[in-house]
Specification:
Shape: globular
Helix content: 25-40%
Strand content: 25-35%
Strand order of the largest sheet: 5-4-3-2-1-6-19
Radius of gyration: 24 Å
Structural class: alpha/beta
Number of domains: 3
Distance between the termini: 51 Å
CATH superfamily of the largest domain: FAD/NAD(P)-binding domain
CATH architecture of the largest domain: 3-Layer(bba) Sandwich
């Protein structure tokens, strides 16, 4: 069978490689370089920049560790070169995997021409129609642009512009206090910029637990970031080389740059999906739990279908969709075994200083779902490793079902949060209880001991 994958981001190339591994002939259509937004303009360059920013912050705090260090300064050309070298290395690895799996890569802009074909405007000129037994749509997302901000105005950036690293502004107004906005706020503050964050909601990281939000905001405020919550940028003007952001509250913020970081939206416009009979939910493609669209033989995954718009979610959806496609269209005379994704076990991470990582539900959200939930909190201020590393702010908060001890969720703000959250994700995936985690010996000294302490407290509270 021949599978055509439209889009070469994390979801698309994961689907292509899995389908090839299962024996399908695969064609992967990508307009840009393999890796999509995540690798080329999103997750990877942002985290590479944040690593440099972290070193800047550490040098600034060197005296607290008994060290005499010169003040670090940013070399923008060197920062950009390092970022690009990391991205280039990872892109080449994905290209190598495509060759190893014998996936044919077509470079060009694809459009769904029919339920069985993709029309490609080739990057080198001309066009090609690629036909397949199954098509997996993985066109990702694009930057959402507020209609009241002129994004063509010099001095107005999106996240794409920010990761290009053309300059580090002396001062910057960031529109949006979500994940993207806070990560850039953290990086710029560490590099020495004066940072203002404007968020329409009355809290940063909308939808997150209040304890998480408070700790994250406090930490950024200690870095010098200013917040304007429950407010909005109504207009942006450029006067004599300076940017002026006019807020709904009447406040006017002056800066070098205005960074619009209000999120992303599914990339579906003009790609032929409704014309082929695919049902849409505004910009998102509608799918069932097996990633089947309303057109037989066409699947969709990743940011294109909305939901948790995260690279690792797209990867998992891509793998599962490929398995389902092969199972459905290769099975003769027997019902195919189809898979779905358990989203409640997938972590979401914010790479600020300190890091934020959450999985599952908070206590309030669990109670809204009818779960009799308890929560237990353990702080990094009592952890030897965190104290030694000078990162004793933050906490681990475990949410469990009363009586059974089944883990419902976890929120971590603190050192190595984006790594340690996976202990909880594994436990949730396989039905482990807080008692079982508490009875598992953790190495000392490690920050993971805070998870064990929180689970021990939770086990006592829920009586399991």
């Amino acid at each position: 069978m021949h599978i055509v994958v439209l889009g070469g981001g994390p979801g698309g190339y994961s689907a292509a490689f899995e389908a090839a591994r299962l024996g399908a002939t695969v064609t992967l259509v990508e307009a840009d370089r393999l890796g999509g937004t995540c690798l080329n303009r999103g997750c990877i360059p942002t985290k590479t920049i944040l690593r440099s920013a972290r070193i800047m912050a550490d040098v600034r705090d060197a005296a607290a560790f008994g060290l005499n260090a010169a003040v670090a300064t940013a070399d923008i050309d060197a920062l950009r070169a390092r970022k690009e070298s990391v991205v280039d290395e990872l892109v080449s690895q994905i290209e190598g995997s495509a060759k190893r799996y014998k996936v044919r890569v077509v470079n060009g802009t694809g459009r769904l021409a029919s339920p069985k074909s993709v029309e490609v405007a080739l990057a080198g000129g001309g066009s090609e129609t690629v036909e397949g037994d199954v098509i997996i749509l993985a066109t990702g997302s694009v930057v959402f642009k507020l209609p009241n901000i002129d994004h063509e105005l010099e001095g107005v950036w999106t996240s794409d512009d920010a990761v290009a690293l053309s300059e580090i502004p002396k001062d910057v107004v960031i529109v949006g206090g979500g994940v993207i906005g806070l990560e850039f706020a953290c990086a710029y503050a560490a590099f020495g910029s004066v940072v203002h964050v404007v968020e329409l909601m009355d809290q940063v990281l909308p939808g997150n637990d209040k304890r998480v939000v408070k700790q994250a905001q406090t930490s950024l405020e200690e870095m010098g970031v200013g917040f304007y919550l429950g407010d909005a940028v109504e207009k942006v003007e450029r006067v004599d080389g300076r940017m002026y952001a006019f807020l709904r509250s009447g406040t006017v913020l002056e800066s070098d740059m205005v960074l619009s970081a209000v999120g992303r939206m599914p990339n579906s416009a003009g790609l032929g999906f409704p014309e082929a009979g695919i049902e849409m939910d505004r910009a998102a493609v509608k799918v069932d739990e097996y990633f089947r669209t309303t057109v037989d033989g066409v699947y969709a995954i990743g940011d294109l279908i909305g939901g948790m718009m995260l690279a690792h979610v797209a990867e998992e959806e891509g793998v599962v969709a490929a398995r389902n496609a092969v199972a459905e269209f290769s099975t003769v005379g027997a019902e195919a075994h189809l898979e779905s994704v358990r989203y409640d076990c997938i972590p979401a991470c914010v790479y600020t200083f300190p890091e934020v990582a959450v999985v599952g539900s908070g206590r309030d959200a669990a109670k809204e779902r009818g779960i009799d939930a308890i929560q237990a909190v353990s702080k990094f201020s009592a952890n030897a490793k965190a104290l030694g590393e000078g990162e004793s702010g933050g906490f681990v908060q475990v949410v469990a079902e009363n009586g059974t001890g089944r883990i419902v969720g976890c929120q971590i703000v603190g050192p190595h949060a984006v790594e340690t959250i996976h202990e909880i994700a594994v436990a949730m995936k396989h039905g482990l209880t807080v008692r079982q985690l508490a009875e598992t010996v953790h190495a000392h000294p490690t920050v993971s001991e805070v998870i064990r302490a929180a689970c021990a407290d939770a086990a006592g509270k829920c009586g399991c």
